[in-house]
């Protein structure tokens, strides 16, 4: 198929005829967008080499980078980022999302599905885990290429930090806090309509990772004294009950958590209160 695509385009160009390499089908997709949707990195590469617009959008405002990020196609993203025609990393689709937002939302969805492990057949669980790893690769490539961690979606003003906390996605939260390393000042205390990531973590309900998320945010500098537009601090948003009381106690102690590394067969990081 790849050879056929190249042959047709090059033949038309050789005959000096108008080759509409960015012609659109009924959904507004150009041949490049169709190739990306079909996870065809080699065809995508050839189309770009022959002049395809890497920033062309479909009827939903999605570029090739949005689609590759949303579907979790790391090989396609590598192709898009390695060409001389660098795609726009910060363009928003009509939902207000950047390509990085799209990848994060997909990872969040897969994370939530894998949390139902006991209810899933092993084959389905393994499939979801494999897809999650591919989406994580996409996120890594986008971050390495310079995608802005502080970018906020148009509709809700949420950064990637807000999105992962809202989904209870501890592993991705930890990743973003590690890769930021001061690149975005006060990244951890950014607000989305007045709420910081810590506000959202405090408001989580029936989330098994809530305590770990709150501890991690506090350890990395989240400020529990910040108030939202309703004049509420994170501690005011915690659900009632025994579990909530434990979260409230952590928030009242504030930024007093230190990481402790325990040596086990699989090294893991735990967090505890400083004396």
Automatic annotation (TrEMBL):
Q: Sorted alphabetically, which keywords does the UniProt record give? A: ANK repeat, Repeat
Q: Which SMART domains match?
A: ANK
Q: Which SUPFAM superfamilies match?
A: Ankyrin repeat (SSF48403)
Show the Pfam families listed in the entry: Ank_2
Q: Looking at the record's lineage, which domain of life comes first? A: Eukaryota
Listed PROSITE patterns: ANK_REP_REGION, ANK_REPEAT
GO cellular component entries: nucleus
User: Which InterPro entries does the protein's record reference?
Assistant: Ankyrin_rpt (IPR002110), Ankyrin_rpt-contain_sf (IPR036770)
BP-aspect Gene Ontology terms: regulation of gene expression
Repeat: present as a keyword of the record? yes
Give me the ANK repeat coordinates as residue ranges. 27-59, 60-82, 193-229
Q: Does the keyword RNA-binding apply?
A: no
The molecule here is called: NF-kappa-B inhibitor delta
Taxonomy of the source species: Eukaryota, Metazoa, Chordata, Craniata, Vertebrata
């Amino acid at each position: 198929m790849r050879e056929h695509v190249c042959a047709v385009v090059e033949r038309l160009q050789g005959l000096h005829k108008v080759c509409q390499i960015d012609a659109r089908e009924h959904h507004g997709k150009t041949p490049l967008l169709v190739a990306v949707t079909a996870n065809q990195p080699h065809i995508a590469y050839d189309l770009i080499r022959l002049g395809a617009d890497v920033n062309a959008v479909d009827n939903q405002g999605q570029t090739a980078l949005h689609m590759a990020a949303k579907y979790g196609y790391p090989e396609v993203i590598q192709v898009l980022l390695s060409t001389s025609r660098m795609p726009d990393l910060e363009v928003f689709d009509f939902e207000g999302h950047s390509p990085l937002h799209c990848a994060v939302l997909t990872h969040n969805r897969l994370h939530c599905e894998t949390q139902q492990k006991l209810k899933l057949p092993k084959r389905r669980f393994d499939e979801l885990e494999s897809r999650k790893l591919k989406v994580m690769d996409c996120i890594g490539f986008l971050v390495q290429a310079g995608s802005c961690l502080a970018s906020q979606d148009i509709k809700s003003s949420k950064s990637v930090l807000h999105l992962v906390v809202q989904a209870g996605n501890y592993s991705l939260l930890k990743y973003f806090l590690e890769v930021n390393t001061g690149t975005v000042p006060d990244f951890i205390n950014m607000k989305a309509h007045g709420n910081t990531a810590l506000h959202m973590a405090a408001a989580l309900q029936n989330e098994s990772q809530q305590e770990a998320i709150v501890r991690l945010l506090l350890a990395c500098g989240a400020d529990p004294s910040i108030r939202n537009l309703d004049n509420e601090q994170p501690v005011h948003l915690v659900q009632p009950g025994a579990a909530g009381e434990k979260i409230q106690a952590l928030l009242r102690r504030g930024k007093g958590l230190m990481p402790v590394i325990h040596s086990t067969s699989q090294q893991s990081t735990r967090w505890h209160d400083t004396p």
